[in-house]
Amino acid sequence: MSMAKIQARGFTLVELMIAVAIVAILAGIAYPSYVNQLQSSRRAEGQALVMEIMAAQERYYSSNNTYTSDLAQLGYTLVSGNLDSDGGWYRITAAACGTAALNACVNLSATGQGAQVDDGTLTLNSRGEKTGHW
Q1: pTM of this prediction?
Q2: CA nearest 57: which of 107, 91, 98?
């Protein structure tokens, strides 16, 4: 009886390195898309809050014939004088539009916080003008 050689088959180092390179390339493509999708979903939170506050500003204007820069007067709870979105990704402020008086125009700004800092500031004024990534 002769002994047959049993050959174990596995991955070679070259095959393993090719697989690792393919995974790295796929991750390099997928991760930036994932980060962009996260920023986009967080931006939706900021946009929704700005639109909600603008609706409250319009209701306030119809009763008082002026807008307000104090968001607490609109029924929002401020923490340390600031109004942050639910996730904390945006800080909302209100001010008069440029040189216009507050009874003529209000400008709402949502400034990115934390991971959203690179997203910049979303603005909406009572004239319907928007700036930022809407």
Answers
A1: 0.76
A2: 107
- pLDDT tens track for 29-59: 999 999 999 999 999 999 999 999 999 999 9
Characterize 109-132 residue by residue with b for buried, 16 or more Cβ atoms within 10 angstroms of its Cβ, and e for exposed: bbbbbeebeebeebbbbbeeeeeb
Residues 6+ apart with CB under 8 A from 99: none
Domain spans of the chain? 13-131
Cα distance between residue 47 and residue 110, in whole Å: 8
For residues 127 and 18, give the distance between their C-alpha atoms in angstroms, rounded to a whole number. Answer: 57
DSSP string across 58-117: HHHHHHHSS--S-GGGGTPPPBTTBEE-TTSSEEEEEEE-TTS-TTT-EEEEEEE-GGGG
Dihedral Cα 45, 48, 49, 54, nearest 10 deg: 160
Residue 122's SS3 state is strand
Residue 59's CB: how many other CB atoms inside 10 A?
12
Q: How far is CA 1 from the centre of its chain?
A: 74
